[in-house]
Amino acid sequence: MSKMALKKGDVVVVKKGKDKGKTGKILMIFPETNRIIVGDCVEVMGREGFPQADLIFADPPFNIGYKYDLYEDRKKYDEYYAWTEKWMGACVKVLKPTGTFWVAIGDDYAAEVRIIGRGLELHLRNWVIWHYTFGQNTKRKFARSHTHLFYWTKDPKSFTFNDMAVRIASARQTTYNDRRADPKGKIPDDVWSFSRVCGTFNERVDWHPCQMPERVLERIIKVSSNSGDLVVDPFSGSGTTCAVAARLGRRYLGIDLSEQYVEESRTRLDDTIAGRRPTTDIAENPELLRASRRERLGAYRSAGRADLPAKPTLFGEVPERG
Predict the structure, then answer these.
(1) Which of 37, 138, 187, 237 has the largest CB neighbor count within 10 A?
(2) Are the C-beta atoms of residues 197 and 215 closer than 8 Å to each other?
(3) At what angle do helices 240-247 and 259-273 cross, to 10 degrees?
(4) pLDDT at residue 144, as a whole number
(5) Which carries the bigger pLDDT value, residue 208 or residue 112?
(6) For residue 28, what pLDDT is reported?
(7) DSSP letter (8 states) at residue 149
(8) What domains appear along the chain, each with residue ranges and CATH number?
(9) What is the pairing mode between strands 146-153 and 95-105?
(10) Which one, of 279, 198, 192, 194, lies nearest residue 243 by Cα?
(11) CB-based contacts of 243: which residues, under 8 Å, 6+ apart?
């Protein structure tokens, strides 16, 4: 006799864990994808039947005092370290053997996250630096204008890397007219230049204190997953990962503690899928970045050095003509 399928609302007896023997209602049947869930990511990913992820992108609280509506972003060092070990471990457990794991983190705990990743036997492919313009203003130190992006795979050889989906024009193509240039462009370097999401950008939301640019997630999702793959974000926040995953034809699962953030993210997702929410074109564009350099190089070749406009040296002085 076959067992009857369980459904939401059914009352069942818990068979394991600290609540073993207790009864409770089924709130969710996995695998359910293309949704954002309210809950603690460690608890949710630990539920029986949570689907295996092809790609996990995590942008956790940095423990620097951000004002979230529920989470307290000011833990003691040991507490934050232990919590990071716990949620990263939970991610690895639901990651497919061929899966990819990305983590965004600030300077304060980048070294710790790297060590934890090694302890979880993840294979580091790149330690990417996301350099953003419009950095934080400082008075007694250099302005901080970057975030660390750790790129791990579970298997050192078997993983998804769609290089053709993220190639960009090389300097050999755009600047030097070098015949040796690969016509397919080049794989981006491990320093990415994308602006932060400013208040004037189309994609900016006003209900979350921090927000990843969609262009950063575009590159990560395109290179590390395929159409129909499952992308999981354990700290969904403003919903950027899920919005980009949906737009690129991936399945997604987001998790967040805040009911408000989840509800707002669902609205953002609906608007994104319906085409009502435009993105901001802040992607790396070597062609535009090198335009002025090409202009000066052309002037040099056609008119000679003496006719070039004055340009400051490394130390800010304008060299004499002649």
Answers:
(1) 237
(2) no
(3) 20
(4) 86
(5) 112
(6) 55
(7) E
(8) 32-305 (3.40.50.150)
(9) antiparallel
(10) 279
(11) 214, 265, 268, 269, 272, 277
Instruction: Give yes or no for residue 155 having a pLDDT over 90.
Output: yes
Q: 61: which 2 tokens?
A: 């609280």
Higher pLDDT, 25 or 191: 191
**Structure confidence at residue 301 as a pLDDT band (50, 70, 90):** low
Tokens of 47: 């539920």
CA angle 78, 36, 100 (to 5 degrees): 65
d(CA 148, CA 136): 16
Look at the block and give the residue holding tokens 């970045």. 289
Torsion of CA 277, 239, 106, 196, to 10 degrees: 0
In the predicted structure, residue 151 carries a pLDDT above the cut 60: yes
- Write the CB contacts of 278 (distance below 8 Å, at least 6 apart in sequence): 202, 203
Q: Starting at the earlier edge strand, list the strands of the sheet with 251-256.
A: 35-38, 251-256, 230-233, 53-58, 95-105, 146-153, 123-131, 191-193
